[in-house]
Write a structure and sequence with these properties.
This protein starts with a helix and ends in a 12-residue tail after the last helix. By secondary structure, the protein is mostly helical. The protein has 1 helix and no strands.
Length: about 50
């Protein structure tokens, strides 16, 4: 593999790592927010509950 090709692949891997890290941050923030919203209810929400 040429050095140029290796460098290009290294850049793409780095970009993907950064994108994945950003997505994980978004998921973490969303999960925290959902936990906060769920904590505002007396009972957990259950879409299959008929009572």
């Amino acid at each position: 593999m040429s050095e140029k090709k290796y460098d290009e692949l290294a850049v793409k891997v780095r970009q993907h790592e950064e994108a994945i890290a950003q997505l994980l941050e978004i998921v973490a923030v969303t999960n925290r927010r959902l936990s906060e919203l769920d904590g505002n209810h007396d009972e957990p929400l259950n879409p299959y509950s008929f009572t």
